[in-house]
Design goal:
Layout: H1 2-27, H2 32-45, H3 52-99, H4 105-145, E1 146-153, E2 159-164, E3 172-176, E4 181-184, E5 191-195, E6 202-207, E7 213-218, E8 223-227, E9 270-271, E10 276-278, E11 285-290, E12 296-301, E13 305-310, E14 316-321, E15 327-332, E16 338-343, E17 348-355, E18 358-364, E19 371-376, E20 381-386, E21 390-395, E22 404-407, E23 416-417, E24 424-427, E25 433-436, E26 442-445, E27 458-463, E28 472-476, E29 480-486, H5 488-494
Parallel strand pairs: 5-9
Antiparallel strand pairs: 1-29, 2-3, 3-4, 4-5, 6-7, 7-8, 8-10, 11-12, 12-13, 13-14, 15-16, 16-17, 17-18, 19-20, 20-21, 21-22, 23-24, 24-25, 25-26, 27-28, 28-29
Helix pairs in contact: 1-2, 2-3, 3-4
């Protein structure tokens, strides 16, 4: 016992000695020689396994950091003094104006010019502070209206595209940079089927309107049509997601839980051979879609062309050329033989195949950067999204200018519009997903924090309004797809 007491006393003295040295370093404002002496004393008073030279280098670096903070602190004090002096002068000018004759126009003009700068600063500060307050109120309502229901995890690389089947059973399809496409049970989140037929990144996936057939586009310069047969597993109870953190929660770190190798669903069946392979492109096939009726498909490629194919014969029917740069997306009208293609040349083009003898094309020039996607609504509208951080709504009957413009703070990727209520879902590079109506009014932002939501850029969104579990899906480069439940009546009521 006396030996242990002696050891404890010696440990306390060493600890106090180290503490006194550390306090002296933090509070000192001495010269470089004093700092070096304190460092040597600190080295002697600490028991470390690091080599002495390494410890000396570390202390030198910490000393440099301390000096930088001291310089910043002094500069901050000086700037505060200048700001106070400026505020005093502006206040004096304002008082002089109030006491002067307002009929003196010259003095009034000078005073208004000097006070306008301060007024602008106050407005900016007020706007920034109140926007946070308003956002906090929006977060409360968004938790009840927009809820994360299911995460679909299994891909080994980012997910470019996703869509839901249009026939029973309704399943979710994802296209990934890991060279695979997967079909998922919406309710359970289980992988039902994996397509392994492509030799490159799978960039898009779309389903036949009436049959169990999928269309995928790939970086291997081909598009594949393949059949699938899935059996849904027994549904599982949906997890309670009512305790959703605020949408304005700040990430505590940028670490991605999916950065490690994720073991894909190895127990699900796979398809390796397509029923139809569509060739003729000389570059990456970035997107593909079915024309109304399902007998023809259109593909968009980095070779600056879009091709129209006959599915049964695999023959090329038309090659749609005219874009000046690589294509980024293509979409077909749900009820008419219309195709819209998007490109990096800042335009998107409308191709009309309703008259077999005439194939007209119209060019839309409303964006200043890459048009990432353009999609049809059920009516006579086209909605386009761009890297210029805007989304524009167009009327097919009047294509000269958009009828609505949505301005955002981040590049917009592959958008989607709900069929019934025409709600636009905007996936962003900054990991956010926002909902707008066709007139450009913001309805909600999907909840996202360091505990839920996407952790990398969101590549695509897709609606499935008829599904009771999840009616909106998003995917991103965090290797996961997410199913959301959007209470659309409540969303429109808040509007």
């Amino acid at each position: 016992m006396p030996v242990e007491s002696g050891i404890s006393a010696a440990a306390r003295q060493a600890k106090q000695k180290r503490k006194s040295h550390s306090l002296s370093i933090r509070r000192t404002n001495s010269t470089e020689q004093d700092r070096s002496g304190l460092q040597r004393d600190l080295l002697e008073g600490q028991d470390s396994k690091l080599p002495l030279s390494l410890r000396t280098n570390l202390l030198d670096l910490f000393s440099q950091i301390e000096r930088e903070f001291e310089n910043l602190y002094l500069e901050n004090i000086e700037l505060r003094r200048e700001i106070e002096s400026l505020n005093d002068r502006l206040a004096a000018d304002g008082q002089a104006v109030e006491g002067a004759d307002l009929a003196k126009g010259a003095l009034k003009t000078k005073a208004s010019h000097s006070t306008s700068q301060l007024s602008q600063k106050l407005k900016t500060t007020y706007k920034a502070s109140t926007s946070k307050i308003v956002s906090s109120f929006k977060a409360t309502t968004s938790r009840a209206v927009c809820q994360l229901v299911k995460e679909y995890v299994g891909h080994r690389d980012g997910i470019w595209d996703l869509s839901a089947t249009r026939t029973q059973p309704v399943v979710l399809g994802t296209a990934s940079a890991d060279h695979t496409a997967m079909l998922w049970s919406i309710e359970t989140g289980k992988c039902l089927l994996k397509y392994l037929g492509h030799q490159g990144s799978v960039n898009s996936i779309k389903f036949h309107p009436t049959e169990q057939m999928a269309l995928t586009a790939s970086g291997d310069q081909t598009a594949h049509v393949w059949r699938y047969l899935v059996q849904l597993p027994a549904p599982q109870p949906v997890a309670d997601v009512t305790q959703t953190p605020s949408e304005d929660d700040v990430d505590s770190s940028d670490k991605d839980d999916a950065d490690g190798e994720v073991d894909g669903p190895n127990d699900c069946p796979s398809v390796r051979v397509p029923t139809t392979t569509l060739r003729s492109h000389q570059g990456v096939v970035i997107a593909a879609d079915w024309l109304v009726g399902g007998k023809q498909v259109v593909t968009a490629s980095w070779d600056r062309a879009a091709n129209l194919y006959d599915v049964e014969t695999s023959e090329l029917v038309h090659s749609l050329t005219g874009h000046d740069q690589e294509l980024t997306h293509c979409c077909t009208h749900p009820n008419q033989r219309l195709v819209v293609t998007s490109s990096r040349d800042t335009t998107f083009r409308l191709w009309d195949f309703r008259d077999p003898s005439i194939h007209s094309v119209n060019v839309f020039q409303g964006h200043t950067d890459t048009v990432t996607s353009a999609v049809f609504t059920v009516g006579d509208n086209v909605v386009s999204g761009s890297d210029d951080r805007t989304v524009k709504v167009w009327d097919l009957k009047n294509m000269r200018s958009p009828i609505a413009t949505i301005r955002t703070d981040s590049a917009v990727n592959r958008i989607s519009v709900s069929v019934n209520q025409k709600i636009i879902a905007l996936p962003h590079d900054n990991r956010q997903v926002r909902l707008f109506d066709m007139s450009g009014v913001r309805l909600a932002r999907l909840p996202r924090s360091n505990r839920q939501g996407h952790r990398r850029m969101v590549c695509c969104s897709a609606w499935c309004e008829d599904n009771t579990t999840c009616n909106l899906f998003t995917c991103g480069f965090d290797r996961q797809a997410i199913g959301w439940n959007i209470n659309i009546p409540a969303l429109l009521q808040e509007k």
